[in-house]
Amino acid sequence: MITRDRRWMDDLYLDRVLGGAVKEFRRGLYRLERLHRYQQGKHDILSRERPEGLPNARLPHGFARYIAQVSAGHLLAGPVRYTDGEHAPGVKALRALYEQAEAGQADVELAMQQAVYGRGVSLNYLDGQGTMKVAALDPRSAFVVYDDTVERQPLMGVLLSQERDAQGRPAGGSATVYLPRRSLRWRLNAGGDPTGAPTALPHAFGRVPMAEYLNNEAGRGDFEDVLPLIDAYDRLSSDRLNDRAQFADAMLVLTGVMGLGTADDPEDHQAAMRRLRQNRTLTLPDGDARAEWLVKNPLEKDIDVLRRALAQDIHKFSMTPDFSDERFAGNASGIAIRYKLFCLEQKTRLKERWFVAGLRERARITAGWMRKQGLPPIDPERLRIHLARETYQDDNGKETHGTSTADPPGKPGAAGDPGLAR
Is the dihedral of CA 63, 65, 68, 73 positive or negative? Predict the structure, then answer.
């Protein structure tokens, strides 16, 4: 989280605040790019090199994508619902606005971004017809700057853009800064500092129209802590295949005095080797001579035990169950399945608190625009936000999981309240 003192948000210092924030953001960009690579299946094992002539199998395994998809899908199994009995007309207008703004699709992308990068970023904006839209931004090019108080109020949102010429070659970059009542666009030099005078445009939201959806207090992705285990699994499987390939290229060891050359040239060992591969026979001169293959005897059982242990640790420490495990047999009861999903459910409840906090900030942004449009008002602080969950039945047919409800701040189970969501 990037924070700044509010007193530096004066126009006189704004370009310097932006330049420092961009440099701070770029220092963590390598981490985000690595998480993106692993989510796409482009693991470090793909860049491994071995000496020429040796097999070089490079096998990435999709643990990262699996963990992110299971986590995001469990958090957001259905559309987000909003209710408030005291401001029903306003909530109805909010739901209609979000449907028109395609917020549901943005929510799906944000849940996946939260799982992969440790945070998602959304932007409220107006399209060419003046219709409000909600977009999920790439966390590798967008961030929010907060004040340094305990409230962490947003000071500005930053969207970085890479500009290209007509042939697609890089041609500089720019940064759009979203402030509470206007947006400013600067061109950036190679060092990330703003250059020239900015282009200013007003917006109608009354606060910074960008919201972040953290995954946890540290902003870490769901598979980030198990990346070393994923790398170890990739290396083990790749080396296992390399060993099998090298087994076919084993060395022939000849013991004793024997000649492999031809009658015309006893030292022509290459010709003898070609004849040996063709005829598949070898005559030994006496009882002391031996011919045997020099091979590496892999301990397949031990290797498989290690492979299973690595896979179990990946699932254990990412708190993501392995649904291909025999413990998830089709005849398992609802209570048994609920017990096996206990860690995933606890992790998801914590993720939900942060996700709902982002949704509530987005509701504050939307409420400002609704007031200016003369729509029925809503109170974002009293808004009840419901995240759909998968349901499971116990042995009596009763649902054990259902819709999770995040109460407004200050009520039991509120996002940000120690009581957690019900």
Answer: negative
